Amino acid sequence: MAKGNKSGHRRFGNIRKLPSGRFQASYIAPNGQRRPAPETFARKSDAEKWLTLAEAQILSGEWTDPERAKVKVGDYAAQWIEQRAGLRPRTVELYAWLLNKYIVPHLGGVALGKLSTAMIREWRATLLGSGVSTTMAAKAYRLLRAILMTAVEEDKILLRNPCRVRGAGTEEAPERPVLTVAQVFELAERVGVRPVGNIRKLDSGEFRLRYRVKNGHMRRFPQTFATRQEAERVLWNLAEDGHADVTRDDRLRALILLAAFASLRWGEVTALKRRDIDLVNRKVHVRGAYIEQANGRMTLGPTKSRAGLRTVAIPDAIVPHLVAHLTKYTKKDDDALVFTGIKGGPLRRSGFNKITRWKPVVEALGVPNLHFHDLRHTGNTLAADMGVSLRNLMARMGHDNERAALRYQHRSNSADRAIADGLNALVQAAQERDGDDDDGAAGSLVPVA
């Protein structure tokens, strides 16, 4: 007999008739608290149906506390991010930004129990209608879906996840560019090329460009420019056409080659230390990764996933470039960073882009939308084209799969060496086609000299 019921009364819950003639239903919840129906009923049979449904939810384990469902989306989501174990600092920053930028302004004040699929569909349509890209809208939707899934499965606040908008979490990302072997070497050479010149802002607000020609004399460009960016673009074009003199710096050449032919992430390649480079066995040990937080703090932490902790074989053809770099730019102690910023600290993305002038460099290369991560994408694609098994390919990439991460860590060394040897063959073939045996670095196609 249910607690609170008298002999001859209902087995579960209570129903009483109010002075208004309507019926009020209530029951004792699993937590010992009496829970009334959120509304009264015109007929007693409707109240009985409501109690029957509540009892069924308790018996099936699907009952949720309606009081807890009153918590606001913004409060619950903020606590979810704070309490989520294992999130990397950059991921925490991304989640907090998505929450405050796209979710809280629209849904932050809504109680969890009031959320509906229609409401979420309208929220997404509002984001897209206000100019938010489908990529950002998809990221925000996936975050909200993950938060609400915790409310369903772990906290038992909701019966089901209202994020049920078909296709809302899918990103239609454009296909990323893949470089050829020759382009990788050309890029490695180009990131060290700098046109010689200067740009000065005039009293009129326009910009004047002066550049050095090959005989060492400085010349003034005949016209002025409305913006500094326009002047810089012309300076790079002058260097590309061979009219402006250039300087060369090879400190980042090995970084480009290693990122591409060893399929390393930015944080992984910038965290490499001298002891991680095994030149004898032609291997690189990936032991950690740098993370640059929004406040500018650099943190050396674990790899992006468990599978990211790995050893990667490298092609013979890039070993001489690594030897040259280690000799010229890396300190002698084993813990010395292989690639550093100008002042010797960890290399930051902003510093890298400034040193390399990445945008004009990749424009001159003919791949204007190339991102640094596309070097890793290139290496992965070249390796995949060799027909290696998915298991060995994913292991080389350091790709984490919850069901197979441990299997990827215990991969076949011979298969990994086969990938590196195949890459080496591609490099050698490219060198032979270019016929560049006497003009410096193989594959260097820079038309500025």
Q: What this model shows, in words?
A:
Helix content is 42%, strand content 11%. It is of the alpha+beta class and 449 residues long. It has four domains: 14-63, no CATH class; 69-153, Tyrosine recombinase, N-terminal domain (DNA polymerase, domain 1, Orthogonal Bundle); 196-247, 2-Layer Sandwich (Double Stranded RNA Binding Domain); 253-434, hpI Integrase, Chain A (Orthogonal Bundle), CATH 1.10.443. It has a three-stranded antiparallel β-sheet, covered by helices on one side. It has a three-stranded antiparallel β-sheet with strand order 5-6-7, with helices on one face. A three-stranded antiparallel β-sheet has the order 9-10-13. A hairpin with a 5-residue loop joins strand 11 (289-292) and strand 12 (298-301). Helix 2 (73-83) crosses helix 5, helix 6 runs antiparallel to helix 8 (253-261) and helix 13 packs antiparallel against helix 14 (390-397). The radius of gyration is 31 Å and the shape is elongated. Residues 1-5, 402-412 and 439-449 have low confidence and may be disordered. Residues 71-152 form the Core-binding (CB) domain. Pfam families: Integrase_N_phage, Phage_int_SAM_3, Phage_integrase. This is Tyrosine-type recombinase/integrase. Belongs to the 'phage' integrase family. Residues 220-421 form the Tyr recombinase domain.
